[in-house]
Amino acid sequence: MTGKYTLIYADPPWTYRDKAADGERGAGFKYPVMNVLDICRLPVWDLAADDCLLAMWWVPTQPVEALKVVEAWGFKLMTMKGFTWHKTNKHKGNSAIGMGHMTRANSEDCLFAVRGKLPARMDASICQHVTAPRMENSRKPDVIREKLVQLLGDVPRIELFARQSSHGFDVWGNQCDGPAVQLQPGYALDIKGMAKAFKNAPLSPSDNQGRERAA
After folding, report:
1. How high does pLDDT run on average in the chain?
2. By three-state DSSP, how is residue 139 classified?
3. What's the CA gap between 202 and 21, in Å, rounded?
4. CA of 109: how far to CAs of 6, 40, 67, 92, 200, in Å?
5. What global pTM score does this model have?
6. Nearest Cα to 164, choosing from 185, 148, 147, 180?
7. Closest CA to 4 of 72, 41, 51
8. Which domains are delineated in the chain?
9. 105, 147, 39, 60 alpha-carbon torsion, rounded to 10°
10. Entry's InterPro entries (predicted)?
């Protein structure tokens, strides 16, 4: 892996383990999900620079699982609340109301974890709390990417489980075009680096499959 990233931004498609996950309300009905073991086995450690910040969304019913992923990917937890997203209704602007446990949920948290030394902070004014409209299933506010770039500056960065490229992030995910890497449980392939090595020549499917086997 030639590309090493100072910032890794991830929104894993967590499998929920409670009754709310059943039927048409559950995440698995709305988009493909992954179990914790398969998330842990993604070789994110191959993408990370020696000094790297991980910003990862997690679900409140599974803090232990989130910490397992952090450790498996080679990071140490800084805080479970790097960002807290307070959700509002898109058109009305008032607080969105979700299902939740005991209380009705209307926020999500993004943890921070570090590998090596913490990358230098470029802007000390970035606040933890973000208010933004709730969008389609699992999509997070674009402003979080903006704030991460403000926080660390124009560092090499990648978004995992991305929908589209934005704010200078390389991307990987089943909903985005032109992923910078191929990432599967057990292996990683640097597509962007290979394209540069081959003078940006397009990779045919047969070439790509052969290089995957060689990786």
Report:
1. 83
2. coil
3. 41
4. 21, 19, 13, 23, 38
5. 0.82
6. 180
7. 51
8. 5-186 (3.40.50)
9. -20
10. DNA_methylase_N6_adenine_CS, MT-A70-like, SAM-dependent_MTases_sf
